Structure prediction request, 186 residues.
Amino acid sequence: MDNKERFLSLCGTIDRDGIDKLLGWLETSDFFTCPASTKYHGAYRGGLLEHSLNVYDELQRLLAAYPEIEAKEESVTVVSLFHDLCKVNFYGVEKRNRKNEEGVWESYDSYVVREKFPFGGHGSKSVFLIQQFMTLTPEEAVAINCHMGPWDKGDPDVGRSYEQFPLAWLLHVADESATYIKEKKK
Ligand SMILES: [Fe+2]
Ligand SMILES: [Fe+2]
Prediction:
């Protein structure tokens, strides 16, 4: 099963109005081919799709380690697979030049940010985009909105969100674990 098949089969477990419309939009977008970043983690074709699945796997691993945190399976799937939809239609490719090992200049493709919908937030943009198609529960919306934790300059007191919604803290940790451990550049 490739990453797209796995993603779609996990989405098949989401029983909620609008999921078909959300998936229809993703098919028309670059979600299945775009990178997860320009040069950090997942900076390759399909990087965002792979990152989303990695966050799902890390979140499941963390939930097994924290049995006292209760979370609905559907919410776990929704928050992990869709937390970074803000990066859909967000990147472009530019030609750059570099010297190869023989010292000869060569042209290569480099990812750049080419934001087409400058919403003004990261997690908040994902929440907005998802809710164009499908309603989130308050817990899911907080988890996605606060998944950057203290890295998100827009939220000075994310700890209060994590206190009230432990799944939100777990998603934040799963996102970091996927980024810094699983997708660490060799
Ligand atoms: Fe993110
Ligand atoms: Fe992420």
Summary: Helices lie at 3-11, 19-28, 47-65, 73-82, 123-131, 138-145, 158-164, 166-182.
